[in-house]
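User: Teach me something about this protein's shape.
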Amino acid sequence: MDESRHMSNNSFRMMTLIHDNPLRRVLDKPVKTLRAAGIRPGQQVLEVGCGPGFFTIPAAKIVGDGGFLYAIDLQPLALKAVNRKLRKAGLDNVRVTIADAASTGLPAESIDLAFLFGVIHALPLETVVPEIHRVLKSGGVLAVQTFSGRSLEGVTEGGLFAFAGKEGKVARFQKN
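Assistant: First, the predicted structure itself:
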C-alpha cells in the first residue's frame, strides 16, 4: 500500500464535514450520480476511495440484497465512518477495506462496475487502470466523475478501456 497517498486524519475530518453536510446532497445528488454510472440492483460493485461514505450508502441501497459493494480507501478513519453509517442504515451488503486502488486484493473478473468519484486527481492511473481492468468482468464498466478537471486520457491509454458515454459529470468506460 502506498502510504504517501494516505490522507491525514485532520484532512479527512475536514472532508467529512463537507461530505456529511446535508446541503451537499442537494447540490450533488449521490443517487443521480450513481445511476449515471450505471449501477443497478444485483451488481458486484467496487468503490475506489469511499471516504466517509457519501456514495457508499446510496450505492449499497441500489445494488440491494442481491448485489454487493466493495468500498476501499487508504484512510483508516474512512473505515470507521462508513462502518458506523452502515450499521445505522442496517446494511450488510458492503465490505469496507483499507486497500490501495492499484492492489485491491479482489479476485480477477469479479466486479461488474467500478467507480472513481472525487478521487481520480489523486490516483496514479498507470497502476490503477490495469488493476481495475483486472477485477472487472468481461464488458464491465469503469465510471469516473469528471469534475476534477483531470484529463481522462489515462483511462483509455493502452487500450484496456473504451469510452462508452457520458451523463452529466460521469464518464463511463467499458473494459476491452
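Now, about its shape. Confidence is low (pLDDT under 50) at residues 1-5. Residues 76-89 form the longest helix (14 residues). If you'd like, I can walk through any region in more detail.
User: That's plenty for now, thanks!
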